Amino acid sequence: MEVSHTERGMMKATLLLAAVCGCLCTATANAQQGGQPAADRLVDSLLAQMTLEEKVGQLAQYTGQWVQDHPEVTAEHLALVRQGRVGSLLNVYGAAYTREIQQIAVRQSRLGIPLLFAHDVIHGFRTIFPVPLAQAASWDPETVRRAARTAAAEAAAHGIHWTFAPMVDIARDPRWGRVVEGAGEDPFLGAMMATALVRGFQGDNLENPLTILATAKHFVAYGAAQAGRDYNAVDISERTLREIYLPPFHAAVQAGAWSVMGGFNAVAGVPMHTHRRLLRDVLRGEWGFGGILVSDYTAVMELQQHGVAANEADAAALALAAGVDVDMVSGIFQRELPALVRTDRVPEQLVNEAVRRVLRAKVALGLFDDPYRYSDAARERALTLTAEHVALARELARKSIVLLKNQGGVLPLRKDLGTIAVIGPLADDARSALGSWAAAGRPEDVLTVLGGIRQAVSPRTRVVHVEGAEVGGTDTSGFAEATRAARGADAVVLVVGEREDMSGEAASRANIDLPGVQERLARVVLAQGKPTVVLLANGRPLSFPWLAEHAPAIIEVWYLGVQMGPAVADVLFGDYNPGGKLPITFPRVLGQVPIYYSHENTGRPPGDDKYTSKYLDIPVTPLYPFGYGLSYTTFAHQRLRLDGNVIAAGDTLTITVDVTNTGSRAGDEVTQLYVRDEVASVAQPVRVLRGFQRIHLAPGETRSVVFRLAAQDLAYWGLDQRWVVEPGWFTVYVGPNSAEGLETRFQLRVGSLQ
User: Fold this and answer.
1) Which of 134, 479, 531, 588 has the most CB atoms within 10 Å of its CB?
2) Summary mean pLDDT of the chain
3) What is the pLDDT of residue 18?
4) Could you tell me which CATH class the domain 399-592 is placed in?
């Protein structure tokens, strides 16, 4: 009998569903997600009363549409709300408006089940904080947690229950635009930031109406997209998956994240929204995740473009079988699942389990006790862009700035200079200061770099502003004015980089040099010979070898949010001593990409001999290594010591180093701990981050920084597909970045840990 392509796809889906039905994951939720017996009884009671269409409705999420300057629910989706056939709404907020829509759900639908309102609260809601990559540059998880707590409070006050953050994808290819949304290249730093953000969004208890559900995204390996091209396929080893890309997700789950979002990508040919092994076996089975698994935007529908689903019914069946609970926007679950269940091609048990997870979240948020507890107009007014929130935005922005070069002590600048020329297309760009995914942030809330400088200098100082060029354009007609401004100034601040829309989703770049003619602008400005500070405003590592060689001072300022200008001015004029460190490697040129510090060695490491792993035309080393950042003072790491040089598998090793501020200014240093397994059954990275501390030291002050290293911290994914720690020698490195510092050794000698 001849079988059509559509029939073959449906047969495949039916076989998969049959297998899932026989082994449904029954892992209980995390402690926060488990639900008390009363909550379970409520959920069971609702399920018993719900029609199949109402059940499927809980798995459907639709988006609002912008009308003038605010989002509204369409008439079509309002009709579904009245029928109890919508579980959540995306991009709909405002205390009064969410109350109005919630009233329709609660009062007009048959069972009165409240809605969830979701939004991308990535780095602030109205008070916009630095972009996530910049936050990671602070190496300060506690301040990052406080910022997420503030963002959650503002968002919740505007009626939002659920954010699609944090993005915890590891990214090692700066061509990928979404580098800006994560914590960079390292899984340890990424896990620390993931934990901080989840705890910030969700607080100590979801009973607090100023908390929102966190979502760890995009599960998993989305940041490993081939060629750095967004949405592209991923093909990596199981070891790389386990050691690099999964750990931040595991940390988010351990921190209690209520939600996980699937990635747009396929892994080894299997699209994530059909990846049963990773979604059901690893996420739910191994880790015990009991929260909501939400699709990315139309990702269920896109299974057809991936070529694994023949039609929408196929896509719905495969996604539900894999463990996807909520279909974002595409409406495929809504349209297809009822018929699939009634024809026995999808077990209703799968639908019930997904609905349970959605209802448990609504119970945990207290929406069945008070559906309007997040829709309080007075609270909305009181908690929007407050002085306290703005002060925290400035604090985190200052901590996120990274000083890359300060030759000849150009910095800090004096506030009483006669004339300062502020040149460059990003000096007064308020929209770019907000970065991508700026939620409800508004350019008018931003004080730009130009504004911050004007606010900081003395009344006698003249500040001249010249754009000089567009960010991505080819017009050089502004060079003459920029040259005149630089020639007539006592100091120059040159602000170059990327517009905010050049990084983020769907913003991959094949070239990571400064866009347009900005380097040519820099050359003519620097040719005037004035003390010049280059500020880089960007959402990814850029390649700028000429600037790195010729500019006397360079500061990485990223996109810092509403307080970008004051924070930058604080650093420029010495009111704040920069202490940020790079969370991602900066390459010399694009040809080095992907480049990251934690690479494996080769049989022929880079060396003087020709037949070693290197380039003919440039050094193999990066422009700036992971963990790098300077200060206006200097620090010395001394007396690295261990409490023993032989440990057993069950022991904890204490590592101590003395850090001294050897300069004349108080400042912050981020002391970093790296480890290398010298000989193992599997080739190991040259070093891996296993600890860090950001400390503040007065001039001349010395502090002992202590790290503790357990045997589990030495584990790797072994040949038998398990985490193992093997006895042997390990090297410890402690210092200011991944390329410098002190080192010593210890031996793990007794037994092995499996």
Assistant:
1) 134
2) 94
3) 35
4) alpha beta
Query: Which tokens in the block code for residue 202?
Result: 């969700």
CA distance 710 to 210: 37
pLDDT tens digit sequence for 117-133: 999 999 999 999 999 99
Q: Which of 140, 186, 296, 668 is catalytic?
A: 296
CB 552 within 8 A of CB 410: yes
Strands 116-119, 327-328: pairing kind: unpaired
CB-based contact 374:92 (threshold 8 Å): no
Distance of alpha carbon 156 from alpha carbon 177, whole angstroms: 28
Taking the alpha carbons of 413, 414, 417, 419 in that order, is the dihedral positive or negative? positive
Largest CA distance in the chain: 90
Domain boundaries, the chain: 399-592, 635-750
Minimal CA–CA distance to 111: which of 43, 20, 194, 9? Answer: 43
- With 80 as the cut, is the pLDDT of residue 386 above it? yes
SS (H, E, C) 265-330: CEECCEEHHHCHHHHHHHHHHHCCCCCEEECCCCCCCCHHHHCCCCCHHHHHHHHHHHCCCEEECC
Q: Name which of 206, 277, 272 is nearest 29 in CA terms.
A: 206
Q: End-to-end CA distance of the chain, in Å?
A: 51
Give, in words, the CATH class of 635-750: mainly beta
Between CA 730 and CA 714 the distance in angstroms is: 9
CA distance 690 to 652: 13
Residue 329: which residues within 8 A CB-CB, separation 6 or more? 61, 62, 63, 90, 297, 298
Query: Rounded distance, CA 431 to CA 447, Å?
Result: 10
Residue appearing with tokens 């699937």: 262
Cβ-based neighbours of 308, under 8 Å, separated by 6 or more = 9, 270, 271, 274, 318
CB neighbours of residue 7 within 10 Å: 12
CB 539 within 8 A of CB 503: yes
296 is catalytic: yes
Q: Say which residue the tokens 């798995």 belong to.
A: 59
For tokens 């449904």, name the residue: 24
What CA–CA distance (Å, rounded) separates 507 from 181?
A: 12
